[in-house]
Design brief:
This protein is of the alpha/beta class. 39% of the residues lie in helices and 17% in strands.
Length: 248
Amino acid sequence: MTERRFDDRVAVITGSGRGLGFAYASLLAGKGAKVVINDNGSALDGSGNDTSVAQQAVDRIKAMGGEAIACTDSVATPEGGKAIVEAALDTWGRIDVLIHNAGNTRFDPLAEITYEAFRSLVDVHMLGAFNVVRQAFPAMVKAGYGRVVLTGSIGGIYTMPQTVHYAMSKASMIGLNNAISVEGNEHGVKSNMILPGAVTRMSEGIDVSQFPPMDPALVAPMVGYLAHEDCAVSAEIYAAVAGRIDLG
């Protein structure tokens, strides 16, 4: 089987300092991609920041022989989205792959949730996706090529208590995925969604003792395919959990 590589491709991966995002970045960089590691190092609920998280991820990729730069801007604002995409364009003159993985989490009862708590997740998951797509899409259209991978969640379909902000944000990725696919079709731009299942720091508070092996590296190959030029599909949704892939 011929190895699928990303030589000369430039990938922007949000939330890639740790967990699933870093697994994606490591895979693509290991196969020749130049990678923008975007991560503001925030806490699980999105508060605070730690600029060392992105740089440490870059250092790890470079130690493996890959090429990467750090960007610590937040996806939660239009200005941040612009800065993230411009990091790729200013450094390498192109953006071929955009993977929106950045996310945060918190639990708030529907009957008690404040507007601020609601927006704290919506701004990162939903508006964050739009903010980076809005900046990357024109560059991809101009180049006549692009691959977008959006991160949804089973929690956006079936959900669980106290996660209205997360559920709504993740469900919204379906509409964005379809919009990119429809408008990008004639320009060589494809978009697909991943519904990942992995044990990361966002699993905090969940009993994972009975889970099968769910390392982020088991999700990365599916994301790698969706980000590759050989990807033959668009507007699809794939669940990737514990090494198993299912069409959503």
